[in-house]
Amino acid sequence: MMVDRADTNTLGQAFDTAFARLGQAAQHDNTLQWRESGIITRVASGIVWVEGLLGAGYEELLAFPGGLYGIAFDLDETGIGVVLLGDESRLQTGMRVERTGRVMDVPVGEALIGRVINPLGEALDSLGPTETGERWPIERPAPPIMQRLPVEVPLQTGIKVIDAMIPVGRGQRELILGDRQTGKTTLALDALLNQRDQNVLCVYCAIGQRTASVVQVVQTLRETGALAWTVVLVSGGSDAPGLSYIAPYAATSIAEWFMAHGRDVLIVYDDLISHARSYRELSLLLRRPPGREAYPGDIFYIHSRLLERSTRLRPEQGGGSLTALPIVETEAQDMSAYIPTNLISITDGQIYLSPDLFELGVLPAVDVGRSVSRVGGKAQHAAYHTLTGDLKLAYAQFEELESFARFGARLDDASRQILVHGERIRACLKQVAHQPWSLLEQIIVLVALTGKAFDEISRDEMPQAEQKVRAAVSTLDAALIQRLQGDEPLSAEDRQALLVVAQMVLQTKLRD
After folding, report:
1. For residue 45, what are the domain limits?
2. Interval 340-357 mean pLDDT
3. Distance of alpha carbon 92 from alpha carbon 85, whole angstroms
4. What is the pLDDT of residue 412?
5. Does residue 11 belong to any structural domain of this protein?
């Protein structure tokens, strides 16, 4: 029997193809993959109810059609109450919902520095998508107490009244509170701007803010160059309440990643009253029992577990720190309202901005008498101790005597001198926005102030005289500058040398 060579080649190719397919079939994974799905039963503003996901866990991330996600908030036998992280208008009852098996997380890493993102990690600027190789859950346990260090390293804000009287340390939680339009955001931004060359990264978290306000903040950071060391996370006022709720937790996880890598981080929450209101809205929609002012009973816990994550770590844990400046808005100067008192009890001090001082043009409008830092001088630069020890007391005496003098009482020479010196203290504590002062500039002006070198200067000439003394820093001896920047307290000799320089500058000013 004769077989054609062409037929033989065809049969060989057929056998090769068959064996190749058998090999592919052997390599194919035939294991079953379980996927649990449910059905939307009801849709509300920012909330949906789902049935059928019997294995879903608390705060598990659920996937909805169209790339929308939600967080399982209420679990009961009949269904799940889900907080949506997007617009609910695309959802309808009967749509499928699937479990993801993970909690809400956010991208972290160096690539986020200089970027503007939303709480989901999506870019809001024109620099393309954020590409980081790591994601951290937004809810993380606070570091144990044995992994923490005391707050002893100062965080210079560049704001004279804070660095001198209400010092902030790295790892501290200092609350900024005041009525609307009293300069709270400006104060926090000035602290961010001063971290240039301080080896401190910054995270600015806008919670439920107007778009125009956020754009102005980002523009200020960009114009001053501060965006180079800042991550901006934004949840707008028109976004879903779920995004406003997760925004501060997502921002904290981003900051914690840098802290875990040994970096010092400053985070600003602007503001937590909007965060509390968004959580109240979600809780009421989920029909949770309301408490005082309709807030749910765990409103204290959502802020305490957030702010407790700010700390300073031991060297074996990385040695980084996370300093928090939460902002809260008061109404009619009422510091005893529900949310402000909660936050005051959680934080390590508060900076109160008075609308009365704001109207008088005393900016920043920090009310020294109602502000406090519970860390105190432990987190203050050593050179400040000898300068600011009696400054707060002298300023308090001046304010009390000023109120008494308004009744037209006759004052003796000593009382009039207290008024003159107190007015110079108030003038020196004024500061132009977005112009932070360096450590040396603050020290020499405080030396001149406590040495009463400004008492002979009229109030109208105080701004020019203060700038003259500030500029005298460039004439200081290099050895003196090194001692001022060191860890040793200001000696009497160095203080006298600085006072002589300030007096010489002011005498020249008076002659001019």
Report:
1. 37-102
2. 96
3. 16
4. 82
5. no
